[in-house]
Each structure stands twice: as structure tokens, then as C-alpha cells.
Amino acid sequence: MADAAVLPNKISGLEGRLLDLRYKMAKLQKLLPSRAKHQSSDFEDRNFRARFYNRLWRESAAGIGFDYRELGYGFWAISDPSGNEVRGRGGIVDLDSNVALYLAGNKPVSHRLLQGIEGYRAPRFQEFRLASIGKAINFLNEQQRPCVIKPARDTGAGAGVITGIADENALRQAAIAASVHCKDLLIEETVEGSSYRLLFLGGKYLHGIRRDPPTVVADGQSTIRELIETENQRRYDQGEQIVSLFTIEIDQDCRATLQEQGYDLASRPAAGKTVIIKRVVNQNAAKDNVEVTNHVHPSIIATGIQASAELGLQLSGVDVLTSDISRPLDETGGVINEINGTPGLHHHYLTVSGRDPDITGRLLRYCMATASRPHAL
Predict the structure, then answer these.
(1) Residues of the chain with pLDDT under 70
(2) Distances 324 to 205, 297, 360 between C-alpha atoms, Å
(3) Number of domain units in the chain
(4) Residue 49, in any domain of the structure
(5) DSSP readout, 14-70?
(6) What is the model's pLDDT at position 272?
(7) For 85, how many CA atoms within 13 A lie in the half-sphere containing its CB?
(8) C-alpha–C-alpha distance, residues 120 and 307, integer Å
């Protein structure tokens, strides 16, 4: 790598024009048809997300004597016998303020707000844009190990997140791809360990899962691209037994993850070999999610409660990266990766065990209790 001390934070005019051209090409590329996009479009046409959440809310409401009605276009309303009502869309509930949600969705701001909380550890990061990519290059050189590129704000479900960035060329490609989602970017250190999602409501810890990355098992004949298409088809054919709300997208994180393992999309691994498809876990399936509710260290729970309160969130999903969720973060080098203001509730239902954690039932009771309280002027 080049000497970080002599790299400018801003790029030259020529390089800037080249990056801008490649950025525009990347935006155009997202509009072009492909086999993976065709599968993803078919998947969305089947409305797996809407079907999953509509059934979840309907059954949860009926189980506690509440009335459920669909309002159209994915919106729903649930009321209790006293006339209190809560509305939502899909997995999102009208509970937290827009300011709190925007704060949580802005990773640099939320990390800075939370750094004084006891036990709070965030990954080291550097903010940048394509025009100031020299900052990211300097950061990568200082780490001397692969890093992560991601949008800095206003995205979700792992959109634009790319792992395994080991050199300047990969960094530029990742920054261009991430910029399609948001022009404000972060480069972060890579933190070893598993990804955990901890769910909090009203200052209490509800549920925890370990989210493993999506994988395929080789048959000795198919290419990895074909194995991904087969897995996507399995999800497409899942019927009422929904196992995932996403297909696996072949993107830069996918290619980088395969390269780390010595593969590419045309590789044919030996039969029985498990291949990690992506490090970003959002497109995994029920087989990849393991409940860990009773194994989380109390100090991590306490930090999650304080962090959620500091951001003004009543409902939050706290993402933790650590090698051992049963030990304090300062012992393992683990971090709070981010705080999610509209956490996907499906993660906690689509698990290996298939156990019903009754999260939506508890959430509805909480919303009704909150709605019935008098509000001070």
C-alpha cells in the first residue's frame, strides 16, 4: 500500500472525473436486467414480505383479543377493546419519532452521541465521499487489514455494505457501489466474530439471535452461481412455510466473500463443501438464525438499553459483533455495530428452532398501553 502520510484527502480532478463516471455507470448497471434481478423481482411479485407480516400481525392480534384490519398498500391498523389503535406498515410500527429514527439511521452521529455510555464500543471508522476518498485510503493503510465500506446513513437491510476491502482498487470499487445508495460513506475496521441482533422495547430486553451469513452446500457439479440460483429458487418455492424475505443478491460483497475463500461464481467446489456467499448477513434464511436470548452478557444488555434510551428509541434492534456474546465486549474486542430504529421483526421469527417468541404480541400490548396514557401539553 502507498504511504498514508503523503496521500491527499481530496482526489485530483482527473481521478474525480473517472470516479464520477464509474459511479454513473454503477447507477445505470442497477437498472439493467440480469438473472439475479429477475429472480429478485419474481420474489417481490410473490409478496413474501407482505404475506409474512400480514399473517404475523393478524394472528398476534387475534391471540390477544385485538381487532386487525388491512388498510391497503401494506398498511394495517390494530385496535384493542378500549378503542386504542396502533397503525403500521409491514414490520414497521408507528411508535418512535422521526427525529429518533433519523438519528439512529445516521451511523456517524449516533456513534458520537453514544460514545460516553458505559460499555459502549463502536468500530473505528472514517467518514468520506467519493470526492474525499483519500481519507478512506489513509484509513485503510493505517489498519493494515481488510475493512468494510458502507453508506453512512438512511439505508437498511445491508444495502451497499461491502466487506473484505483489502486494497485501494477494491476500496474504489466498493465506494462507487455504496455511493449508489448514499453519497455519504463510512470505512470501518473489520471486527472478528459473529453478528447478533438484540431487540429492546420500552427499556427492556426482549430477544436475541445470532445471524450467520448465507451459505450454500456444494454438490460437486454445480457452479457457485448455479448453487445461488438454486437456493433462490428454493426460497421462491417456499409457499406458506416462509424461510426468508430476501433472495441472495450477487453483488460486490458476494464476489469479495467468495474471493476470500479462493472461489468465484464459476467455481465448482467439492461435494459437501459449505461456501459462505456473503459476509453481510441480511439475506440469510431461517436456517442461519440461532436464538441466543438467554446467553447475552448482562453488561451488553445494559449498554443496549442505555444506547436505545439515549437515541430516544422505544423499539430498537442493537447489532453486536463479537466472538462470544456471553462475555463483556471489552474482553472480546466486540463492538456495537449500529442501532436500528425500525428493526426487522422477521429475524426473530425465522430461526432454526421456529419458536414463536411472541414479540409482536408484547409490542401490541406496549403500544396500546402507551396510547392510553394521557400526554402532557
Answers:
(1) 1-46, 372-377
(2) 18, 9, 28
(3) 1
(4) no
(5) HHHHHHHHHHHHHHHHTTS--HHHHHHHHHHHTTHHHHHHHHHHHHHHHHTT-EEEE
(6) 97
(7) 8
(8) 8
Residue 304 lies in a domain: no
Q: CB–CB of 77/123 below 8 Å?
A: no
Rg of the chain taking only CA atoms, in angstroms: 21
User: What 8-state DSSP symbol labels residue 313?
Assistant: -
Residue 188: per-residue pLDDT: 94
Buried b (16+ CB within 10 A) or exposed e, 234-267: ebbebeeebbbbbbbbbbbbbbbbbeeeebeeeb
In the three-class reduction of DSSP (H, G, I as helix; E, B as strand; rest coil), residue 291 is classed as strand
357: cell is: 417468541
111-137: buried (b, 16+ CB within 10 Å) or exposed (e) per residue? Answer: bebbeebebbbbbebbebbbebbbbbb
What is the Cα 343 distance to its own chain's centre?
Answer: 9
Distances (CA, A) of 77 to 68, 93, 358: 6, 10, 18
Residues contacting 172, CB < 8 A, separation 6+: 19, 22, 133
Residue 238 covered by a domain: yes
Residue 233: which domain range? 220-281
Instruction: Give 149-206 as a DSSP string.
Output: EEESBS--TTTT-EEEE-SHHHHHHHHHHHHTT-SSEEEEE---SEEEEEEEETTEEE
pLDDT of the residue at 121: 95
pTM for the predicted model, two decimal places: 0.86
Give the residues across from 67 on adjacent strands: 79
Q: Is residue 279 within 8 Å of residue 164, measured between CB atoms?
A: yes
Q: What pLDDT is stored for residue 21 in this prediction? A: 59
Is residue 266 domain-resident? yes
